[in-house]
Amino acid sequence: MTARTIPAPARRLAGAAPAGGASRAARWARRAPLLPALLFLIVVTQVPFAATLVISFLRWNALDPTHRGFAGLDNYATVVTDPNLRSAMLTTAVLTASVVLVSLVLGLGVALLLDRPFRGRPVVRTMFIAPFLIVPVAAALLWKHVLYNPEYGLFNGVLTAVWHAFGGTRPPQPDWISTMPKIAVEAALIWQWTPFMMLILLAGLQSRPTDAVEAARIDGASAWQIFRYVTLPHLRQYLELAALLGSIYIVQNFDAVFTITSGGLGTANLPYTIYQTFYQAHDYGQASASGVIVVAASIVIATFALRVVSSLLRKEYQ
Amino acid sequence: MRNPRRVWRPWGAVAWLAGVLFVLPAAWMVLTALHSEPDAATNPPSVAAPLTLQGYAEFFGAGTGVSPWPPLINSATASVGSTVLVLLLAIPAAYALAIKPVRKWTDVLFFFLSTKMLPMVAGLLPVYLFAQYTGLLDNISLLAVLYTSMNLPIAVWLMRSFLAEVPKEIMESAALDGAGLLTTLRRVVAPVAAPGIAATALICFIFSWNELLFARVLTGVVAGTAPVFLTGFVTSQGLFLAKVCAAATVISLPVLVAGFAAQDKLVQGLSLGAVK
Prior knowledge:
- Chain A: The chain crosses the membrane at residues 34-58, 88-114, 126-146, 183-205, 287-309.
- Chain A: This is Sugar ABC transporter permease.
- Chain A: Belongs to the binding-protein-dependent transport system permease family.
- Chain A: It is a multi-pass membrane protein.
- Chain A: Its main location: membrane.
- The complex is a heterodimer.
- By secondary structure, chain A is mainly alpha-helical.
- Chain A has a single domain (82-317), classed as MetI-like (MetI-like fold, Orthogonal Bundle), CATH 1.10.3720.
- Helices cover 72% and strands 1% of the residues of chain A.
- Chain A has 15 helices and two strands.
- In chain A, helix 1 crosses helix 15 and helix 7 (136-147) crosses helix 10 (181-206).
- Chain A is flat.
- The model of chain A is unreliable at 1-20 (pLDDT under 50).
- The longest helix of chain B has 30 residues, at 4-33.
- Chain B is mainly alpha-helical.
- Chain B folds into two domains: 4-59, no CATH class; 69-270, MetI-like (MetI-like fold), CATH 1.10.3720.
- Chain B has helices spanning 4-33, 37-40, 54-59, 69-98, 105-117, 124-134, 140-163, 168-176, 181-210, 213-218, 226-231, 241-261, 263-270.
- The model of chain B has no long low-confidence stretch (mean pLDDT 83).
- Chain B is built from 13 helices and no strands.
- Chains A and B meet through helix 1, helix 2, helix 3, helix 5 and helix 6 of A and helix 1, helix 4, helix 5, helix 6 and helix 7 of B.
């Protein structure tokens, strides 16, 4: 399953094997250190996936254990026509795309700010990293109860304070999570993931060849032109890397959806839906079928991601 | 020439302003943890309310008698245990990959990475059933093993990029002198790769410490971890903001300390070693 996801460039690279001549025993001796990790990963990650695949073809409900049997494609038929799963797919796509895009743009902005020297830069950099270092479920609880709460949350508290400061008597007190559930979840995730994007892009900015920037400046290029024609092309692969790694993590997000909305109000993404099917409905066959579909979708994303990483790896050996 | 000082100064102010706005929710969490429950739940917010350690006292069991230490110790056990296991498996593997002994070594490398890209939630059910049949439900060692598999791909990639920087000549001369694998690892590779090992350990520790989904499904009263414990602080009755903020701060503290201490290593780890 995973072998197919290896992009062609990597295969070509793999052909460049070390010069032969070593005896069989010696080759195995050099291979040996690799085997424990390889075996461990196959047993702990691939075997469960294989089991999921098998279970997805079974009729198996935990509350009805005597009725177990082969179900063919029934579970897939149920799952594909289930409006919940379809809306979960859409939600996952929207959630992932919006969080990745917005945090990437914000991260780029912050990275550009932090790329310039100014007084107290290490302190500001540390402030920008902080949200990423808060335990995700703690951050989700913070947003839900301390910031969004309509009665005493910080957001409405600030609205009240500002309104009173200008002599207003009835400040707007929106119920953030009920009126905009998706944006509420996304905002909390964007807050946590902007530092991630910023760190990768800042590393990209700082590896930018200074002579090219210098040459462009001497040739009279404006700041915008330098950014558009020198910085951005250089940053491209870092932007791709940040977007794809971010996608891998955010597609799998569970904590924020679970904590902030409990999957309600149209925010249930695929991980939460699978968790719920398995936890509440006890239909193991259907939960596995949705798991298989999620894996299939991930392989598509992973193929792109691996291609980007392999291009970085290829560069390393040029 | 423009005067650089006059150009940069406004950008510095913008950066400071953005940074303060960005860190505000986290700072508010720390401040709320130090307020009393009534002061934490006012509208408009009571910024200058008197400080108290009541929230922290309640987190540590005052009044309820529920101690946070078992979940904290469980989290530490799972995180440290899996990090040690990851390093034991990843260092030899990365060593083998860095000196490229195996034909198709990049295939192996990409296999490691691809396992990271498949959503773990899809394997949740078989793991749960396995744990049920073998009596490993609510057992912290099962979590440690799962966290090891979650972090091993990252660790192998990271360690490979660090070990690739160990000069080949040194390793060859060690081999000529008749040093075995373990001796070479300990005497030659370890000193050069020590910072890389530290960075790898840091990333693995953070991801294990943060994990919620598997901990929630596979543990109960005995092996519950700190993130699971934290979700239990929200009650439908009474005020809990200061308590939750104190709990969130304490539980985030190890990650914050580790992350700030190794900011430079963080980016390397997060990009799987692709960014140096």
